[in-house]
Specification:
Layout: H1 15-20, E1 35-40, E2 43-48, E3 51-55, H2 64-69, H3 77-83, E4 89-91, H4 97-100, H5 103-110, E5 113-116, H6 118-126, E6 133-135, E7 141-144, E8 147-153, E9 190-196, E10 199-204, E11 221-225, H7 235-243, E12 247-251, H8 272-282, E13 287-288, E14 296-298
């Protein structure tokens, strides 16, 4: 089912918008053997040929009050272990807490390597896992089982009324006791291109871009982080006209202060329905597919 402008009868964060566009209701082809699971926020799990790759997994979901209290923000062993049984690699687009907090624990539990920025190396070092971190080179292809992974230089959207990237710069704290939510500084920001099973998947964790770096066409599935897009000039048309994706999957619109096992809420001022309208305004040929928390898509 391809969305048409006449179908857009609902706006904002009405849950029925997500329900109407849910991937389970579509006939969109998915590569045999490949599975994709949304973990909430910007997190995804990919599996193919017994190889499991995570992107920006955030499972602990620290509640609002502890985040604001500036107490240490650390992963929950119980929560992570209940969702992660194996991992062969973790890919991290930037190191804000809602993208990177659980990464060291996943690596400790599974022994997997993690890939990302200098700040990710620092974070892993704070947990005594520096040797499990690979600082990536932009545009280099990393072979992880049947997956080919490339990191693409990008930008984080400027939140705070469009004036500033929150917690900008590198992670600099020297102990876990100092690792508050705001201490998870952004570090380098990267889009992540994953090729597997004849399919190109592009993950954008924050709604901004470097136009000269974004892949030109050939993307099958665009995992589109939509939080903060209002503060990036014409973000949606700019990136869609570069990627030319077949399928657009919005994410980072859920309320990540709620536990994963709670009913999904929407983040403040994200406007999923408005995003759908923005996509259709560029072209009504894009297929827009939504996922529920922990929903898996496979052939």
């Amino acid at each position: 089912m391809t969305l048409r402008p006449s179908m857009l009868t609902r706006h904002g964060n009405d849950p029925s918008v997500s329900a109407e566009l849910n991937w389970a209701r579509s006939e969109t082809d998915f590569p045999p053997g490949l599975s994709l699971t949304w973990l909430g926020t910007a997190g995804f799990r990919l599996e193919l040929e017994d190889t499991v790759v995570y992107i920006d997994p955030y499972l602990t979901r620290v509640p609002w009050r502890p985040v604001m209290s500036q107490r240490p923000a650390l992963p929950s062993a119980k929560t992570v272990a209940s969702h992660v049984t194996r991992a062969d690699a973790v890919l991290v687009g930037h190191t804000h807490f809602d993208h990177a907090l659980d990464v060291p624990l996943i690596s400790a539990l599974t022994g997997c390597q993690v890939y990302g920025s200098k700040s990710l190396q620092t974070l892993m070092g704070l947990h005594g896992l520096a040797d499990h971190a690979t600082r990536v080179e932009p545009h280099r292809i990393y072979e992880i089982g049947p997956f080919q992974v490339t990191f693409v230089p990008s930008l984080h959207s400027k939140l705070l009324l469009g004036l500033k990237v929150p917690s900008d710069g590198e992670i600099t704290c020297e102990s876990l006791e100092a690792l508050t939510a705001s201490a998870y500084c952004c570090g380098d920001v990267m889009g992540i291109l994953v090729r597997a099973a004849g399919t190109a998947i592009y993950h954008q964790g924050s709604a901004n871009l470097v136009e000269g770096e974004v892949p030109r066409g050939g993307v099958d599935i665009f995992l589109a982080g939509i939080a903060g897009r209002a503060f990036s000039r014409r973000y949606v048309p700019r990136i869609l006209r570069l990627l030319e994706p077949r399928v657009v999957v919005p994410h980072h619109h859920d309320n990540f202060f709620r536990p994963l096992d709670a009913p999904m809420g929407f983040s403040f001022n994200v406007n999923l329905g408005g995003f759908v309208e923005e996509v259709v305004h560029v072209s009504d040929d894009f297929e827009i597919r939504t996922l529920e928390l922990l929903q898996t898509v496979s052939a």
